[in-house]
Write a structure and sequence with these properties.
The protein is α/β, with parallel strands linked by helices and 190 residues long. Helices cover 36% and strands 22% of the residues. The protein has a single domain (3-189), classed as Peptidyl-tRNA hydrolase (Rossmann fold), CATH 3.40.50. Helix 1 packs across helix 5, helix 2 packs parallel to helix 3 (113-122) and helix 5 (156-176) packs antiparallel against helix 6.
């Protein structure tokens, strides 16, 4: 395997279509576009193997719950000996407005427990990230409850569009590199 693509979320139907599970939605869509589906159980994850531009991909949805996502990524990385730089993690981000994404490599967890777990498990944060903006809660709504809530009727179309853009950004990292993806997709934040 050349690339490991991980979408973050929580397993179980109770979490389907929540803001925190938009990473799962993005990798499901990527798998669909690559004519495969994520379902094989391995590495504490649901997995699929695919090929994109002659590059072998392992696409995973960790089933460890968000806060232990790193366990699944570490197992897959070690089994296939995938370089940290060839890992792409797709996940929700409170600090980015709804409808925007941001691509980058490296950095801290910025308070995201799934990313904190991955950094701790891999021993570094040098992997690629496709951060999907879910916006911040308004008023008194607590962050934890907000990320576990579903998109409102008014937000669903935007969320679906963001999934498509996140998949495009993921494929651009593979085809053109992370710098190309950053130039192409981060400019949309303005």
């Amino acid at each position: 395997m050349r690339y490991l693509i991980a979408g973050l979320g929580n397993p179980g139907s109770a979490y389907d279509n929540t803001r925190h599970n938009i990473g799962f939605r993005a990798v499901d869509r990527a798998a669909e576009l690559l004519s495969t589906s994520i379902g094989k159980k391995k590495f504490k994850s649901l997995c699929a193997e695919a090929v994109y531009l002659n590059e072998k991909l392992l696409i995973i949805k960790p089933q460890t719950f968000m806060n232990a996502s790193g366990e699944a990524l570490r197992e897959a990385k070690e089994f296939y000996r995938i370089a940290v730089e060839q890992i792409i993690v797709v996940y929700d981000e409170l600090d980015i407005p709804l409808g925007k994404i941001r691509v980058n490599r490296g950095g801290s967890s910025a308070g995201h427990n799934g990313i904190r777990s991955i950094i701790a498990s891999l021993g570094c944060g040098g992997f690629c990230r496709v951060r999907i903006g879910i916006g911040k809660p308004s008023g008194e709504k607590e962050g934890r409850n907000y990320v576990l809530s579903r998109f409102s009727a008014d937000e669903r179309e935007t969320a679906a569009e963001m999934v498509e853009v996140a998949v495009e950004a993921t494929f651009e990292i593979i085809s053109g590199g992370v710098d190309s993806a950053m130039n192409r997709f981060n400019s949309r934040l303005n």
